Amino acid sequence: MSETVIPYMVKPHPVTGIPNGKFGIWLFLASEVMLFGALFSSYVLIRTGMPHWPPEGGLSSEVLNVPLATLNTAVLITSSITMVLAWASCKMGSLPRFRLWMGATIALAFVFLVVKYFEYSHKFHLGHTPSHDNFYAVYFTMTGLHGLHIVGGIIVNGYLLGPGTKLWAKDPEHFTNRVENAGLYWHFVDLVWIFLFPSLYLL
Amino acid sequence: MDAAQHEDVSKHMGQYYVVFVALLCLTAVTVGVSYLHLARPAAIAVALVIATVKAGMVAAVFMHLISERKVIYAVLIITAVFFAILLLLPNLTTFEHHSGLPGT
Fold it and tell me: What is the ipTM of this complex?
């Protein structure tokens, strides 16, 4: 049986000037912008329609845990640079260094989720579930969808760190492109949090 | 990987670290400003401006948008236009509210 190969995975496509995988990931990110954009838009609509936000009084920064969210912001920013370093290590031809930085990126993603777990469980403990009021519905929907994206990133990055590494021996350039594409996604997840953090916790 | 590529990446390393430190500093600024309890419009403006600067740095340097192909810019411009429309949609409810049409 002949092997079907997706064309232009390593060499740039003559029309776009970039490999197909990279073009694909950017189109996917464009759709992600619309997904999160719809939620941000809904948030603005819900919030401006309320006489007070949070509805039970106080400030968002008093109801939500700002120190933990600040820590998580730093964790995600750090994971973004470790991701860049993982890709740069591939570019410079060092698989052991790639393993080190990619491992760090995944570890930081888990740290983010653990911190989020503590935040969520504290809210649940107080009876502040998504059905409590609009404030918590918005908070859990937006941070929950973002959290799912973190889980998705862990799966993709975990694959690249584990079984996906086999490609390195066969075609290092192709593997490096995959790491770059996973990185583009990961930086986008960081970018979403950069907006989520102030709009949910601080304003 | 050839030597030219090797050098190309190592040249950018400093840039990555600078952006990393800048992102951490701007996070501290955002949190710090929130404790000042500015008036609502000013607080929103400051927070969003800082977030946009941070997002711009991530996109430009970490995602290499600063030296990307035209086709990606084209995709992103279209995305930005539709994103803006999406964010302006809630305004329609205000227009309806003030129009005095039956049923409003």
Answer: 0.91
Domain at A198, CATH number: 1.20.120.80
Taking only the tens place, the pLDDT of each residue in A59-112 is 999 999 999 999 999 999 999 999 999 999 999 999 999 999 999 999 999 999
The total number of structural domains in chain A stands at 1
- CA distance, residue B73 to nearest chain A CA (Å): 10
Nearest-CA distance A155 → chain B (Å): 20
Interchain contact, B86 vs A18, CB within 8 Å = no
Whole domain around residue A145: which residue ranges? Answer: 20-202
- Residue A1 domain-assigned (yes or no): no
CB contact under 8 A, B16 and A197: no
Is B63 within 8 Å of A184 when comparing Cβ atoms?
yes
Among positive and negative, which fits the CA dihedral B55, A188, A113, A80? Answer: negative
Residue A8 forms part of a structural domain: no
Measured between beta carbons, which residues in chain B are less than 8 angstroms from residue A183?
Answer: 62-63
**Beta-carbon count within 10 A of B78 CB:** 11
Is A201:A61 a contact under the CB 8 Å cutoff? yes
DSSP state letter for A5: -
User: Is A130 contained in some domain?
Assistant: yes
Q: Is the pTM of this model over 0.90?
A: yes
Which mean pLDDT values do the consecutive 10-residue runs of chain A (203 residues) have? 74 90 95 96 91 91 94 97 96 96 98 98 95 95 98 98 95 95 97 96 92
The answer to whether B34 and B47 have CB atoms below 8 angstroms apart is: yes
